[in-house]
Each structure stands twice: as structure tokens, then as C-alpha cells.
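Page 42, continued from yesterday. The earlier attempt failed because a stray header line got pasted into the input along with the sequence. Redoing it now with the clean sequence only.
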Amino acid sequence: MGKSQQQRFIVTCPKGIAPFLQAEIESLGYKALQRGHAAIELVGETDALYRLNLWLRCAHRVLLFVASGVASTAADLYRWAVNLPWEDHILPSRVVTVTASVQNDSIRNSLYACQKLKDAIADRLRNRLGQRPNSDGRREGVVIFLYWRNEHVSVYVDTSGIPLSKRGYRKNPAHAPLSETLAAAILYATKWRFPEALVLPMCGSGTLAIEAAFLAQNIPPSLHRTRFAFMQWRGYQPECWDNERERARATISGATSAILACDNDAAAIEAAKENARAALVEQAITFFHCDYQHLPLPAPPATVIVNPPYGVRIGEEQSIPLLYKQLGDWFKHACTGMRGFVLTTLENAKHIGLRPRRRHLFFNADIECRLLEFELYSGSKPSRSGDGVG
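This time it went through. C-alpha cells are written below.
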């Protein structure tokens, strides 16, 4: 496929992150045609898949549209799919993985739908090219995604394979780490920008700090990733991918930024340092093993982002109200002139003792949360109540 050919893409993301993903896509020069709860549709030249996979911080997968049609049963799916030009996308020597999202009354198990699509692809390639591809579920070859709702069916080439959230730097996850995509979306939501100082109490395994360092230095999140599913796709153009990475390297600033991260758990700090080394940004972050109340703070303006425990583990419930009250007191007395953000549940938020200016809805794994924004004034000046998700 030539570079100039227009293609349709679907970029997926976790719930709550789509507005930030849309802003990212548009910053790369593409127009979002449609935004769903967990996906953005756009049109671009074929080589857009390289730029999207390289630069998107909030995305899970970049899907290249192949075809859509109508199928009520698995037999219908096979008859439709066996007539698609899979030889344009798959070399028979490649391994093929099929994944699916299926809601169809005739299908009890999505694995059955995957198998029928695999059969159609294999039979098409055998009939056209004389060879059937092998298949497995490890996403190490060409990855095909099936989206089936009632009788409407679409198929895509998953150009990412392993989700883009798997940056590769998390060597030590510590306890309950934020996903990389959620960390990036939180940073976008705060509107923090280098060279303003960023303070990260309770930093855990360092995901927020590392994603902030990427942003500060304009490092593409997938720059050092070596495996993408598009590398097994028949239309892969290695020179386009190499050129995209070289252009990206030329824009990296290398500037050191005032990112301060602390945790009172020594193991968490060691994990964060290990992960920052793996991400090649350790020099951009200053780590402290201390309680957040003893963290040496920069002069304002600065942005403070806290992801405290939510109290979902057994034995934490009684300590949570005091923890959040102390955090609110620290905000009021130590962080004057800064902007404070707390990611937590609505139940926990009431213990902070401050009125948020704005709220953003996010999901940390399957936990519904709010990123609460506080303007931290001296004296008794109240924060404004603001818009946002309740």
C-alpha cells in the first residue's frame, strides 16, 4: 500500500481517557471523525500508523480498518470473511492471531468467532497463495481484530499487538501501580507543563514521574519499544518507521525538569528508580525516601499530584479518613500558591476538607475515581467550585 493512500483507523483507549486521546491525535495533525467512550476514529495516510503507535500516550491500540459487513451467524461470518483480500495484509509465512469483541445472540463464546475468522483467513490464503498461515494467541505475528455487534461486523489489522500502555520500562511494578495510559491522561488533565515544578507524593513505582519526564523532554512513549504487530503486516515499510523514529529523536529536548517524587516505602522508591533507569529518564527525576510531609518543596508555582490509597484492601478502612484529612491539611499549610490534584474515590474525597475547583472522571482499573483539582490559597480564601464530572 502506498504512503498516499487514505486509510481509516480506530484508536482505542481506557474508559474516561478518550477526550485526552482525541487532543493527542489532533496535536499530531489528524482530525478525529468520531469519538466514543473508549475509541477515536480518524482517517490518515497509511504511514500514520507509525506516527500514532510511536507518539500516543493515552492509546491502547491502533487498528487499521479492513472491511465491514453483515453476519448473523458464525457461518455467515466465514462466508463473508473468506472473500476478503487477506493476501493484501498477510504473508502466508506469518503467524496470525485473531482477537475479538463479540455481542451476538448466536455466539456463546467469542473464541468460536475467532476460530471461524481464522478459518476464513487461512482458506483464503491457501486458495490464493497455496499456503495456510499458522496461528496462535501470543500476538507475535499479524494480529486481526474482529468487532461484532448483533449482525454488524468489522475487521481490522491491530497494528500495535501488545498494548501501547506496555511501554517496557516497568521492571518492578511494586504495589497497585497506575497504568501508563492513565498516568499520561492525568498529566494532560492537570495541564502541567515543563519547566513548572511537579511534586509527586506517594509516588509508588514511579509511573507518573516517568510519564512526566517523557512529556518534559518530548520523548515518544514507544521510542524504545522494539516489537509492534505492524512489523509482521504485509504493508510494513521499515524505512517509514525508521524515518519516523529519527524525526522524533531530533525533537527530544534533553532538558532536566523539576520532578520531585517521594514515598515512605523504601521498596517502592527502589522500584521507581529501577523503572526510571529502564525508561532512560532517571536523571530527570529526584526521588526521596520520606513521608510526603517531610518532602522539601519547591517555590510556587508548582503542581502537586497525589494518588493515595483508596482503602480497598482489608485493614485499610479505618486509617483512610485520617490519611485524607492530613493530606488536606498539608495542602493548606505547605502547598500555598500551588495547584493540588488528588486521584481518589468520591467517598474518600469528602475527608480532604477542601472544595475542589474541578473534577475529572477516570477509572483506575475497575475503580471509578475522580481527579480533584484544588487551588491552594494562603489564608482563608476559598477555592471556586467548578465544572466537571460530579
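Notes: The longest strand covers residues 61-70.
Reminder to self: strip header lines before submitting.
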